[in-house]
Specification:
Strand content: 5-15%
Number of domains: 2
Strand order of the largest sheet: 1-9-8-5-4-2-3
Keywords: Aminotransferase, Pyridoxal phosphate, Transferase
CATH topology of the largest domain: Aspartate Aminotransferase, domain 2
Radius of gyration: 21 Å
Family: Belongs to the DegT/DnrJ/EryC1 family.
Number of helices: 12
Bound molecules: pyridoxal-5'-phosphate
Order of helices and strands: HHEHEHEHEHEEEEEHEEHHEEHHEH
Protein name: DegT/DnrJ/EryC1/StrS family aminotransferase
Number of strands: 14
Organism: Chryseobacterium camelliae
InterPro entries: DegT/StrS_aminotransferase (IPR000653), PyrdxlP-dep_Trfase (IPR015424), PyrdxlP-dep_Trfase_major (IPR015421), PyrdxlP-dep_Trfase_small (IPR015422)
Low-confidence stretches: none
Distance between the termini: 22 Å
CATH class of the largest domain: Alpha Beta
């Protein structure tokens, strides 16, 4: 039996005709850069997210970098982000001469918490980058209130949670990525809304910010060959936009399939005492970019090895806290340590999850996990 972490082929087979037509159109028009599909996808995505501006760019890391460039911060300014995230979140902060302040996360939802924001706030703090890890929203109401009180920008790293809904205590619902000042996302192929190469986007409801972001992503120019600021060259290819236009129409269905697969794992694994199934944040829907278990009693690595022997792929997102990465040594004291992040790096394991639910494959994965735990 072939088990894949993500079944992109199975998904493609179902939308092949539509996708091929879209790509063929790009080839026929030879409009590879800024062709019509880019604007069309942008508008469809704005409507889907209910946000005023989507600015497509080349990848999710660029989106984060451009977002932070748009804040006009000064060297040495501090930006708070979680220590338990993909490297890109903190990398761009450092690259821009700013100081990433890596903080701990909640052990159930994997998101930044208020108590850590309070602990690490200084007079140099200028922004917070919450990450909606694995597919559900950080506690945005709390983060926004804190940011407002201390006059901070909020940049959402929404690379893993596109399509997720966050409900405020007054009942208002917003899509993740449209809640802070700027949202960033990635269309890397294995992301929930993935293209067939690299891609990314920024989201904002602020008209001035949108203009600035567009300018930065386009060599700092508003008018061709007149450059107001130093920018970069970050575009979404037309062919990728054509793929995304098709896949966006299926995104909610894809999220539902991922939830179905997650529930199936939940039902079958919840009874194993050394496994903690994913907790649900109470005010967010989950789009299960990853289905991530916590494995107790130090058995995570053994479980992963056992599964590998059975040809069942699994992944550890992430094995090393960012502050322990060589690249980030300059930002922390030698023995800096965050307890929850440390623990999660030892306990988490992500199982195959994607849009193509297959009962037989799921049962096989579950039965091997049960075998490992002698259940
Ligand atoms: C994938 C990812 C990114 C970066 O996206 P790329 O398109 O690969 O540059 C950033 N942050 C998080 C949390 C991600 O998962």
């Amino acid at each position: 039996m072939k088990v894949q972490m993500v079944d992109l082929k199975g998904q493609y087979e179902k939308i092949k005709e539509e996708v091929n037509i879209g790509i063929q159109e790009c080839l026929d028009n030879t409009a590879f850069i800024n062709g019509p599909a880019v604007k069309e996808f942008q508008q469809d995505f704005e409507k889907y997210l209910n946000v005023k501006h989507v600015i497509p760019c080349a990848n999710g890391t660029d989106a984060l970098q451009i977002a932070i460039m748009a804040l006009d911060l000064k060297p040495g300014d501090e930006v708070i982000c979680p220590a338990f995230t993909y490297v890109a979140t903190a990398e761009v902060i450092g690259l821009l001469g700013l100081k990433p302040i890596m903080v701990d996360v909640n052990e159930d939802t994997f998101d930044i918490e208020l108590k850590d924001l309070e602990k690490y706030l200084t007079s140099n703090t200028k922004a917070i980058v919450p990450v909606h890890l694995y597919g559900q929203s950080a506690n945005m109401e709390e983060i926004l209130a804190f940011a407002e009180k201390h006059n901070l920008f909020v940049i959402e790293d929404n690379a893993q949670a596109i399509g997720s809904d966050y409900t405020f205590s007054d009942g208002k619902v917003k899509k993740t990525g449209t809640i802070g000042h700027i949202g960033c996302t990635s269309f890397f192929p294995s992301k929930n809304l993935g293209c067939y190469g690299d891609g990314g986007a920024l989201m904002t409801n602020d008209d001035d910010m949108a203009l600035k972001i567009r300018m930065i992503a386009n060599h700092g120019q508003e008018k061709k060959y007149y450059h107001k600021v130093l920018g970069c060259n970050s575009r979404l290819d037309t062919i990728q936009a054509a793929v995304l236009k098709v896949k966006l129409k299926h995104l909610d269905k894809y999220s539902a399939s991922r939830n179905k697969m997650a529930r199936y794992y939940d039902e079958n694994l919840a009874g194993i005492s050394e496994i903690e199934i994913p907790a649900r944040a109470h005010n967010s829907t989950h789009v299960f970019h990853q289905y991530t278990l916590k494995i107790k009693n130090g058995k995570r690595d053994q479980l992963q090895q056992y599964l590998a022997e059975k040809n069942i792929p699994s992944m550890v997102y992430y094995p090393l806290p960012l502050y322990k990465q060589e690249a980030f040594a300059q930002y922390v004291e030698e023995n800096f340590s965050l307890p929850v992040t440390e623990q999660l790096c030892k306990e988490v394991i992500s199982l195959p999850i994607h849009t193509e639910f297959n009962q037989e494959v799921s049962d096989f994965i579950i039965s091997e996990i049960k075998n490992f735990f002698n259940q």
